[in-house]
Amino acid sequence: MSRYFISLFCIATSFWGICQDKPIDLQPKDTVEYKQEYGLRVGADISRLILSFADEDYTGLELVGDYRLTRKLYLAAELGNEKKTQTEGLGSTLLYNYTTSGSYLKLGVEINSYENWFGMSNSITIGGRYAAASFSHTLNNYNIFDSNRFFNPDGFLEGAQNGEEFNSLNASWLEFVAGIKVELFANIYVGMSARLGFLVTNKEEERFPNLWIPGFNKVTDGSNFGVSYNYSISYLIPFYKKSNKKKEETPETEQN
Known about the structure:
Order of helices and strands: HEHEEEEEEEEEH
Helix content: 10-25%
Strand content: over 45%
Radius of gyration: 31 Å
Number of helices: 3
Distance between the termini: 51 Å
Structural class: mainly beta
Number of strands: 10
Strand order of the largest sheet: 1-2-3-4-5-6-7-10
Largest sheet: 8 strands, antiparallel, barrel
C-alpha cells in the first residue's frame, strides 16, 4: 500500500513540475471567431447608365465584378461597351465631328488595405488592370484648319469623305486603380474608383487619329496617359465562408 502512495505522489509531483514549466497568463484573452463570406461580386457602373439617359450623344454600359481569393486579395474585371459622338474644334472653327463605338475588357487584381471591424466587409483597394479595346470611328464631318485655306474650309482630307467609317481599330493599356467599396445592406455594395491609364498599343487609321478610346477616354496628343472614373453598385453572391480568428483582451485587462 505504501508503494502505491509513493508512486502516486511521484506522478503528481512530475505532473505539477510540467505544468509549472508553462508561463501563467495573467492577462487572459478571449478568442473571437467570425466567418467571412467568399464569393463573386457582380454589378454595373451607374455613372454610365445615368449619362446614357442624360446625354443624347452618349450610350454606355459597364459590368463590374470581383472574386475574393484571400482575406485581402481579389481578382477583378470590367466589361463594357460605349458609343459617343463628339466635336473637336479650335475656337469657333469646327475641326472634327465623329462617333466612336466599341467594347473593352479589363482584367487585374486588387488588394484591400482596410482593416475591418468584425462583421464589416468594407474595403479601400489599390490594384491594377490590363485592358484592351476594339472599336471604330465614323467621321461625320470635318474641316481642315490650314492657314492657306482658312477662308475656304469646305475641302476634305484626301481620300476621306463625310460619313466614312474606320474599322478594325484597337488599343491596349495598363491601369492603376484606387477605390473604395462600402456595404450598404446585406451583400449590396456601392463603390467608386479612380483610374490612371497608360497606353501600350494604339492602332489607328493614318487619315484619322484615335482621339477617344472606349474604356480609356480622351487621348491626349503627345501623351500616353488617360484618366477615368467608375461609380458602381454590386451584389455579392456568397459561395462559402472562412473563419477569421482574433484574440481580444478581456475588459479587466483593458482597464489595467
